[in-house]
Amino acid sequence: MPWALALAAAVVALAATGTPGLQIATYAAYFAGAVVLPGTLVLRALFGSRGNWPEDLGLGAAAGLVVQLAGWALGAATGVAALLPIWLAGILLLFVVVPSLRRHWRIERPTRLPEAWSWAIAAVFFLVTLWAAVNFRNNPLPPVTFSFYPDLFYHLALVHEMTRSIPFQVPQVAGESLRYHYLSDADMAAAGMLTGIEPVTILLRLWILPIVFTSVVVFAALARAVNPRWWTGPVAAALGFVGYGLAVRAPIQAGSPIVVLSPSLVYSVPLIGLFTLIVLEALRGKRLRWMWAALPVLAVACAGAKSSALPPLFAGVAVGGLFLLVQRRRVPWVAVGLLAAIGIGIVVGLRLFAGGGAGTLQVQPLGLLRWIDPYEETLGYRDGITAGGLLPPGLVSTGLIGRLFAGAVVVWWFVVQAPRLIGLLAPVRDVTYWLLGGVLLAGTGAAWIFWHPSASQSYFFAGVVPIGAVLTAATLARLVRNERVAIAGAVAGAICILAIPRPPAPARNSFVGWAWTIGAPILTALAIAAVVFATAVVVWKKRAVRALPVVLLAAIAGASFANGAARPVQALAHKPAGVSQTRWVTDAEMRGALWLEANTGKNDVVATNVHCVRFDPRITCDARAFWVAGLGGRRTLIESWGYSDPAVAANGVNGRRYTQQPFHDPALFDLNERAFTVGDAADLKKLRDTYGVKWLFADTRAGTVSPALARNAVLRHTSGTVQIYELPVSG
User: Fold this and answer.
1) What are the φ and ψ backbone dihedral angles of 171, each rounded to 5 degrees?
2) Are residues 61 and 101 in the same domain?
3) 429-442 burial string, b = 16+ CB within 10 Å, else e?
4) What would the pLDDT profile of 695-705 be if each residue is shown by its tens digit?
5) Within a domain: residue 21?
6) Final residue of a domain: which of 528, 559, 590?
7) How far is 350 from 181, CA to CA, in rounded Å?
8) What's the CA gap between 561 and 493, in Å, rounded?
9) Residue 178, phi-psi category: left (phi > 0), alpha (psi -120 to 50), beta (remainder)
């Protein structure tokens, strides 16, 4: 019943936002049969069973993502897409015909989880679905006149690219080698190839909920492995995937492992959770056997999912190994082997996937301040778009008062993140604490040590938020003797966070103006402490002092959960923000791009005059349009280059961000533009013969379109301001 209700809520959220019912059923069948089933069988054979079906299926789904990736990679490397279904069918057949593998279809020594565990996890599923419903409503399915965030179209173009063969190219700049952690896009591409569902529907609707549900169960299983009390898992899952910080008005880098605009982060979370569980069991003495052979593959999958995923785990294993070395006074060879496997993933990941934005990551302690409102709007308003030195420029140029203010902002951030970090304050003489604590400290430290022009260093912290939630939940479970004490504390914390009014935007950007925003979560924490103390004194009297740490920890967890759970409810109660007319893509333009997907060859190259997010020529071009390659599904000679390696490397040149840099090949860009503004037959011939361009996607909103195109090319389709031409074969 709990699982049926949770899944029914997901179906309602999808159907209510325009997802066809048949596609929902098809995708559910695909995920169960092509991801969960083979993954569960393979993981049981390599690692063993958890003794219950929910955790086995959740961990199996995470393993199934890797199994599917292997089949997709075989098809991409050979150019034979049919190898993917053959690979998956072959794995299932193997577990049918090989006698020693048949036993993995069942659990040999079942240990049922309490029914309350299922209801609690289903409640987390439901709240995650509410969050997803907000995002579904805010991102309608094309074609529609709307302004999507550019990254969604960027990933959609990569999904189409992943249906082609290696070597991959940047779909928005044909011919440029793709170096990016694109395995989340590969997973969506595999889903599209197996189901026949349009990539845009998979990206905007069907893909994210199964991945997040998998993450919820994976980290619930990890928490129960750390502490066996049944409620440890649901508490960790609630804190990690529903919970929020202690601020009503949170800093921009509040940290969440589920970000709809970053499929790569979302995809990396269940993989790193599975890896952490395997590492934990290995450090505790479990023999991995054949799992050793699979660990490098899992490591490469993590690196290709998100480049920030593996380094914190490497650090955590190193800390855990050092603890074992000191404790046992001998080399922990298991830790050495784990570090080697993770190291392989990091090295291979740097070679295959790293590029673009990864090259702009620089050391700058406290650089994260530059993306936190109180600092950004005061000391940091002149920091500029480059690193600018070892420390943020605003800190260097200010006086004592300014530095004290910056210190208060840092303290504020850590108070806001208390639900994820407080478990670090309760060390135990066990390798579990040092492993998870090392991962959490490394992810948090990296976020504060590095600088990136788009704050991508924050992904180091966002990726370890579920680890922090596990550590907090396990600490609470270790301290609690009377569960009613913890429940009382959690209720007190929830009341406090919901009762404090949302602080208004400061009237002026000054130290005093931002004081209330910074002070609110600190006052929240003090209020929680006061309520907790009063509760403890009234209820437990002489035992109040002994109960106080438990109640306080539970109150922080309750406040985090209540703050997170309230957000999607509040968002659904309000209408979404209006669409910017200067940034939107019209329904007709989207239909024109979708015509390309339906009527052109998968490997055809398109030239277009669409390059900028805004169509206003008076505004510096933000080269992140991405929608022609995204919705059109075809490589473009030059669409938008804002995320290309040369553009990112040029960040700061002439005072412009990397997204506003000019195209790195002026001659080619001029040729592309002349093809639309002049329509000369010689230019069109050069595009066709030299660069392989077969189609022209002309949009009169983006610029002048010459009437000569109608004479020198064949008009194939018109949609509003869009005209699509086919270039004639030369000769």
Assistant:
1) -65, -25
2) yes
3) eebbbbbbbbbbbb
4) 999 999 999 99
5) yes
6) 559
7) 10
8) 9
9) beta
Task: Give the C-alpha separation, 624 to 622, whole Å.
Answer: 6
CA distances from 88 to 37, 39, 153, 231, 578 (A): 10, 10, 29, 35, 44
Q: Are 90 and 7 contained in the same domain?
A: yes
Q: Which residue, among 558, 593, 697, has the nearest Cα to 148 in the 3D structure? A: 593
Q: In the chain, how many domains are there? A: 4
Give yes or no: residues 622 and 686 share one domain. yes
Whether the bond between 167 and the residue before it is cis, its omega within 30 degrees of 0, is yes
Q: Is the same domain home to 454 and 489?
A: no
User: 10 Å Cβ neighbour count for 708?
Assistant: 16
What SS3 class is residue 363?
strand
**What 3-state DSSP class applies to 696?**
strand
- Expressed as residue numbers, the domain containing 304 is 261-477
Residue 155 identity:
H
pLDDT (tens digit per residue) in 431-442? 999 999 999 999
Structural domain contains residue 256: no
Query: pLDDT of 101-126, one tens digit each?
Result: 999 999 988 999 999 999 999 999 99
Whether 587 and 694 map to the same domain: the answer is yes
- Amino acid 356: pLDDT: 57
Alpha helices in 242-364 (DSSP H): 263-283, 291-305, 310-328, 333-352
Query: At what angle are helices 53-78 and 83-97 packed, to 10 degrees?
Result: 140
Give the 3-state secondary structure of 647-666. Answer: HHHCCCHHHCCHHHCCCCCH
- Residues paired with residue 608 on neighbouring β-strands, in sequence order: 697
Residue 717, beta-bridge partner list: 724
Residue 518's CB: how many other CB atoms inside 10 A? 25
Contact 662, 650 (CB under 8 A): no
3-state helix, strand, coil in the chain (%, to 5): 65, 5, 30
- Report the predicted TM-score, pTM, of the whole model to 2 decimal places: 0.94
Spatial separation of the C-alpha atoms in residues 247 and 139, rounded to whole Å:
26
Same domain, 151 and 22: no
Would you say residue 568 lies in a domain? no
Give the CA distances from residue 27 to residues 22, 185, 622, in Å, rounded to whole numbers and listed in that order: 9, 16, 35
- What pLDDT does 625 receive? 95
Is there a domain that residue 389 lies in? yes
Rounded to 10 degrees, what is the CA torsion of 320, 323, 328, 330? 70
CB-CB neighbours of 413 under 10 Å = 27
From 216, 243, 270, the end of a domain falls on 243
Q: Based on the domain organization, do 621 and 487 belong to the same domain? A: no
pLDDT tens for each residue of 141-166: 999 999 999 999 999 999 999 999 99
Is residue 97 within 8 A of residue 33, CB to CB? The reply is no
Clarify whether residues 593 and 727 are in a common domain: yes
Tens digits of residue pLDDT in 550-569: 888 998 999 999 989 998 88
Contacts of 636 (CB under 8 A, 6+ apart): 171, 172, 173, 174, 605, 606, 607, 608, 628, 629, 697
- Is residue 124 within 8 Å of residue 214, measured between CB atoms? no
Q: Where are the alpha helices (DSSP H) in 196-290?
A: 199-201, 208-226, 232-241, 263-283
User: Bridge-partner residues for 719, per DSSP?
Assistant: 722
